[in-house]
Amino acid sequence: MTDFLQLLFSGMATGAIYGLAALGFTLLWQASGTINFAQGEFVMLPAFLMLGFASFGAPLLASFVLTCAVAVALLGWAFKRGIADPLLRHGLMPIVVATIGLAIAMRNGVRAGYSAEAHPFPSLFADKLFNLGGVTVTLADIGTLALALVLVFATQAFLQKTVTGRAMQAVAQNTDSATVLGINVPRMIFYTFAINAVLACAAALLITPTYLAKFDMGEPLGTKAFFAAIIGGFNNSRGALLGGLIVGVSENLAAAYISPTYKDAVALVVFMLVILFKPQGLLGRKVERKV
Amino acid sequence: MNKIHVIVLAVVAAVLLAVPPFLKSYGIYLFSYWLVFVIATMGLNLTVGYAGQKSLGHAAFFGIGAYTVAILMKAGLSFWLGLPVAMLGCFAIGLGLGFPALRVQTIYLAFATLGFNTAVWLVMRNEEWLTGGTFGINNIARPSLLGFSLDGNLAYYYFVLGMTVLLGALLWGLLRSPWGKAFTALRDNPIRAESLGVHIQAYTLLSFAIGAVYAGVAGALFASLVQFIEPAPFTVGASIMMYLMVVVGGPGYFFGPLLGSAVGVLLPEWLGLAQAGYLFVFGVAVILLMLWLPDGLLSIPDRLRARRLAREASAARTAAAARLGAQS
Fold first, then answer.
1. Whether residue B191 is found in the same domain as residue B309
2. ipTM of the complex
C-alpha cells in the first residue's frame, strides 16, 4: 500500500509537468487553432538556455527569468510571426508539417551546434526526504507538484478573472465576435503564445533535473503532452492538468506492476480508449462536425 | 500521361537502368535503399496524398514487413512465402488501423497512428524471443528468382527496381480505376462522396490497408537488402520522415515519392553532411517549403502554369478593355 501511494505521488509530480506542457498546447489550439508538434522541443530549448545562462554564473532563478524572456521572444513572438501567422490561413496540415520540421530542426540544431550528450541540470529543490504516515516522498516531488499546480491554477485564474484573460477567452471562443467587440485579436493571440512559452520554461525547470538536458528529451515529453491534452479534453484547460496526471500516474503504476519495458505504451492505451469512446476528451465539450 | 510525364519518366528510367553498373557497391546499395523507400512512400502517398488520411505510423508496417520476412526466413521458409505473408499481415493490420480513422479525423488520427507505431516498436524491442530485441536479427539471406541468385548487389538492385516498377504500375492502374477516383473523392469532400454513393468507410479502411501492403513489401525488400534488422529504423521518427518525404515530394502527385525519397534518403549521402547537420537543414527546408510551396516540390510546374494562365487572362482582359474603350 505504501509502495502504491509512493508511486502514485511521484507519478502525480511527473504528470503535473506533462500537464504544464499540455496546457500550453491546448491554449495555443483554443486561441489560434495552432497544433504545435514542436511542443516537446519548446521545453528542451529553455533547458539548454538555462544551462547556458547558468554557465555565465547566473543563479538558477535568475537564469530561469532570463530564459523566460528569451523564450517569449523566440518561442512566442518569432514562432507566431514566422510560422503560425502565415500558415494558419491554409488550414491545419501545413502548420502541423511546419512544426514537425521545426521540431526536427531544433533537435538537430542543438545536437549539431551544441552537444549530443546528456547534461546534468540543477534541481530547484534540496535533496530531502519526508515521511508522511509511512509514505516516503521527496521534496522534489512535493515541490514539483505544488509549483505545477500553482502555475496551472494561476493561468486559469488569469484567464477567468482578469479583463485580458476574458478577452483571450473571447478570442478563443469566437474570433469574429471578439473583433467586432473591439478586442485586439492579434495581441490576445500573442499573449497566448507568450504564456505557452513561459509554461514550457517552467516545465523545463521542473522536469530537466530528472530527464537531464539532452537534444532529444522533447520527443517523449511532447508526445505525452499531446496524449494528456487529448485525454483531458482538447478544448478545456483544466482537462490538460487532469490528462497529465492520468498519464503520469498510470505510467508510473504500470512500470511497477505490469512491465517497465511497456511503460510508454500505457499513455497510448488510455489515449486510444478515450478517442474511441469519448473523442472530445474526459472534460471536453462536444464540437459538432462542420460541413 | 502528357509529354512532360513521358520525358521525365524516360530520363528517370535511363538513370535507374544505366547508372548503377558504373557505381561502387555502396552506390548500388544507396540506389536500392532509395527504391525501397520509394515503394514505402508510394503506399503512404496513397493513404495521405490521394485518400487524405493522416498517417504517422507507416514505419510500423515497414517494420512488420521486414520482421515477418526475417523471422520466417530464419525459420527456414522461403522469401517467396514470407513476402505474401508479410503483405497479408500488413493488409489485415492496416485494416485494423483504419478503424480509428472511421471515428476520428485529422490530428487525432495522426496521434492514433503515431501511438500504434510506438506500440509496434515496443514489441520489436521487448519481445526478444521473437524479434531478438535490440540485438535484432542478422544474416538474413537474399532470395533467388527463377533459379537466378540475387545475392549480388547489382542483381538485387535490379530485382528491387523490377518490384518498384511493378508496384508503381499497379498503383497507376488503381488510381485510374473507379477505386482511385473514390479515394480522391474521399480526400476532397467526404460528405459529398458519401452522398454520391461512395462507401466512405470501406474506402478509408482500404486506403490504409493498401498503403500498409506497400510498406510491407518495402520492409521485406529492406530486410533482404541490409541483411540485418533491429528496431531502430522503425521508430515514430522514421514514420514522420516518411510522411515528410511524401509532403516534400508533393502529396497526391504520382512521382512525388520518387523525389521525396531522394531528398530524404539520397541527398544526405550525396551532400556528405553529418546526420544532425543534414536534419537541421532538412527541418528548416520543410518549414520554408510549407511557407512557400505547401503542395510540395512537384507542384512547381502547376504553379508556373497557373501563373502563366493568370497572366494571359489578365493580358486578354486588358486588351479587351482597350478594344472596348476604342469602340466607344
1. no
2. 0.84
